[in-house]
Write a structure and sequence with these properties.
Radius of gyration: 21 Å
Helix content: 40-55%
Number of helices: 14
Shape: elongated
Distance between the termini: 27 Å
Number of strands: 5
Largest sheet: 5 strands, antiparallel
Strand content: 5-15%
């Protein structure tokens, strides 16, 4: 993080700096652990910083303090998969966090490929969305870009077709559009998830200037985004439950699932549905009976 602007520290070419990302990720993961969490005695000495000391983490991972210190300073060159696995176990990393650590420590294979400036959902996926007449569904790409959606998604979340293409982005909508803060009953959790998804993407493509630009813009315009970005949390989009407060049909509790379409490693198909016979299912049915194009012009919401 740049101390003068508050924006993420950049790398040559306009991307994020993998060394800085690796350093901060390891530091924040180490800071969240206490000695008793990992079976070490707390001898009661005053700790200048929260969490485990570097020497304690190195002991748990079975590496030298000097080696771990170099890694936490961002020098992941020539680090082996075995050492990364040992450090991940010592840090109690989730599967997503361990994948992120590997991407940051060994980024070479990702940086050789140019990041696409934009992508579109292929025609077959658009046809699939249209065929899902009773299920709100959309396709989201890298950097949280909304690439395609069906009529039910427009009815539930707002007609994204009325937005300029560059504003069809989950992160921008969640942090910069007040309507989305009203839509999500647990907006704080939605915001945390959005940042964690972007962090995961940043680990895969730290040299992506468009992602760096998005993060920089949100860091300047949203104090909440800036605070959450500094936590270095990561998460894979998978499935869950969302509670929405829709301006026309009231509160809904919906389950959501995310799928990777075959051959589309950088896109996800996200669907929402309600439990059969529930009040939320009836609300969705009612919403689907209306024409999405007839929704009030101020009805903008989002989820995912």
């Amino acid at each position: 993080m740049d101390e003068q602007t508050g924006e993420p520290a950049g790398a040559p070419g306009g991307g994020l700096d993998p060394r800085a990302e690796l350093s901060e990720f390891l530091r924040t993961r180490r800071a969240r652990l206490k000695p008793e969490d990992v079976g070490l005695p707390d001898i009661g000495r005053h700790r200048r910083v929260p969490g485990l000391r570097r020497e304690e983490l190195a002991q748990l991972a079975g590496v030298s303090v000097a080696y771990y210190t170099r890694l936490e300073q961002g020098n992941g060159r020539n680090v082996s998969a075995e050492v990364l696995d040992a450090i991940a176990r010592a840090l109690r990393l989730s599967d997503a966090e361990q994948a992120h650590l590997t991407n940051l420590a060994r980024p070479g294979r990702h940086r050789r490929r140019p990041a696409p400036r934009s992508r579109q959902a292929r025609p077959a996926l658009r046809q699939l969305l249209d065929a899902m007449e009773t299920v709100p569904a959309y396709v989201v790409g890298r950097r949280s870009e909304i690439l395609a959606w069906n009529r039910m998604a427009a009815a539930l979340f707002g007609d994204w077709g009325r937005l300029p293409a560059q504003e069809r982005n989950w992160a921008r909508l969640v942090f910069l559009d007040p309507g989305y803060r009203d839509l999500f009953v647990e907006w704080d959790q939605k915001a945390c998830d959005m940042v964690a998804y972007l962090r995961m993407d940043a680990g895969l493509r730290p040299d992506d200037p468009l992602l760096s630009s998005l993060v920089g813009e949100l860091s300047v315009k949203s104090e909440e985004f800036r605070r959450l970005w500094a936590r270095h949390d990561v998460k894979e989009k998978s499935h869950g439950v969302k509670r929405l407060r829709h301006p026309l049909v009231g509160e809904l509790t919906l389950l959501w699932e995310s799928f990777r379409p075959a051959g589309e490693a950088e896109q996800s198909l996200v669907t929402y549905f309600a439990e059969a016979g529930s009040a939320s299912a009836e609300a969705l049915r009612l919403l689907g009976s209306w024409n999405a194009d007839a929704l009030p012009s101020g009805t903008r919401t989002a989820a995912g």
